C-alpha cells in the first residue's frame, strides 16, 4: 500500500481503486446523526463511506451523499447483505433494497456481512451475478476466517476482493492477514479503535506520545502501514477530522512490530465461529 494522503487508494484485484481510509457508520443513528457524520467526513476530504443494511441508516447515508457537493462517482460506497437476507434470491432483493434506501444505482463494494453456515455460498453466487451484470464495482466478504475463505474458494468463480474484519492491536490475526494478502484479498478493519478500548492500553499511550500524536492517530496509521484499509467510526466533526490527520508521520518498523506484539486475540465484537446467526 502506497500511503500518501487522505485521497489515497489501494488497487483491488479487479483494478478498482478503493480509498484506504474512510468513515464507518456502525451504531450511528438514522437521521441527523448519520447525515451530519457523513457530511463532516465528505467535507473533510473522505471519499469512502461504509454502511450496512443492519445498521438501519442507509437512507441517511444516501441523503448526505445526495446533498453533498462531492460527486457520487468520487465516493466509494459500501453496504452489506444481512444474515436474514442471505441466500441467492433474497440477496438480490436485499441489494435492490439497499440501492433504493441509498438513492443510488450502484455500489462500489457489496459484502456478505457474516459467514452464515449453509447460506454464504449461495449468497456469494448472488454477488457474483450482481458483479457479472455490472451492477456493483467490487464484491467481498466480512468476518470470514481462513477456513470460511478456503471453503468459499472451492466453488467461487470470483475471488472476494475484500475481507472486512475486526482488526486492532489486541486482535491482529497475522496468519489470516497473510492468507488474504497471498490470495489478493484486501484486508479491511472494522472497530479499529476497539470501540474506545485502545485508549486504555499503556503501551499505545507511550508510543503516541513518542510520535506526538493521539492514540487513535497512531493506531489508524498502524492499520495503513500493515496494508489494512480502515474505516473508523465517529459522529463528532473534530474527531472525524483528527482521525484523518495521520499522513505527516510514519511509524518505524520496530514500533509497528511492538504494536503487533500487543495482540491477545481479544475481540470487542462477535467471534465468526460462534456468532449466533
From TrEMBL:
GO MF entry, a single one: oxidoreductase activity, acting on the CH-OH group of donors, NAD or NADP as acceptor
Domain NADP-dependent oxidoreductase: 28-263
Keywords on record: NADP, Oxidoreductase
Family according to the record: Belongs to the aldo/keto reductase family.
Annotated protein name in UniProt: Aldo/keto reductase
Natural source organism: Chitinophaga solisilvae
Amino acid at each position: 500500500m502506497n500511503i500518501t494522503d487522505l485521497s489515497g487508494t489501494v488497487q483491488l484485484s479487479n483494478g478498482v481503486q478503493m480509498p484506504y481510509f474512510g468513515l464507518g457508520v456502525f451504531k450511528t443513528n438514522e437521521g441527523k446523526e448519520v447525515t451530519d457524520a457523513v457530511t463532516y467526513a465528505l467535507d473533510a476530504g473522505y471519499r469512502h463511506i461504509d454502511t450496512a443494511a443492519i445498521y438501519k441508516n442507509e437512507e441517511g447515508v444516501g441523503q448526505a451523499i445526495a446533498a453533498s457537493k462531492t460527486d457520487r462517482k468520487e465516493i466509494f460506497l459500501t453496504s452489506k447483505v444481512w444474515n436474514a437476507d442471505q441466500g441467492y434470491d433474497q440477496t438480490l432483493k436485499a441489494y435492490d433494497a439497499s440501492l433504493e434506501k441509498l438513492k443510488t444505482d450502484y455500489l462500489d463494494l457489496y459484502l456478505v456481512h457474516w459467514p452464515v453456515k449453509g447460506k454464504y455460498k449461495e449468497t456469494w453466487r448472488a454477488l457474483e451475478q450482481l458483479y457479472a451484470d455490472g451492477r456493483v464495482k467490487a464484491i467481498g466478504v466480512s468476518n470470514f476466517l481462513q477456513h470460511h475463505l478456503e471453503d468459499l474458494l472451492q466453488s467461487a468463480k470470483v475471488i472476494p476482493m475484500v475481507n472486512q474484519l475486526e482488526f486492532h492491536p489486541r486482535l491482529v490475526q497475522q496468519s489470516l492477514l497473510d492468507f488474504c494478502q497471498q490470495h489478493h484479498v484486501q484486508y479491511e478493519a472494522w472497530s479499529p479503535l476497539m470501540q474506545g478500548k485502545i485508549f486504555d492500553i499503556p503501551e499505545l499511550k507511550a508510543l503516541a506520545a513518542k510520535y506526538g500524536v493521539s492514540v487513535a492517530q497512531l493506531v489508524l496509521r498502524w492499520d495503513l502501514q500493515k496494508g489494512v484499509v480502515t474505516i473508523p467510526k465517529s459522529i463528532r466533526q473534530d474527531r472525524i477530522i483528527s482521525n484523518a490527520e495521520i499522513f505527516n508521520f510514519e511509524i518505524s518498523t520496530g514500533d509497528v512490530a511492538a504494536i503487533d506484539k500487543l495482540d491477545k486475540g481479544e475481540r470487542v465484537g462477535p467471534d465468526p465461529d460462534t456468532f449466533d446467526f
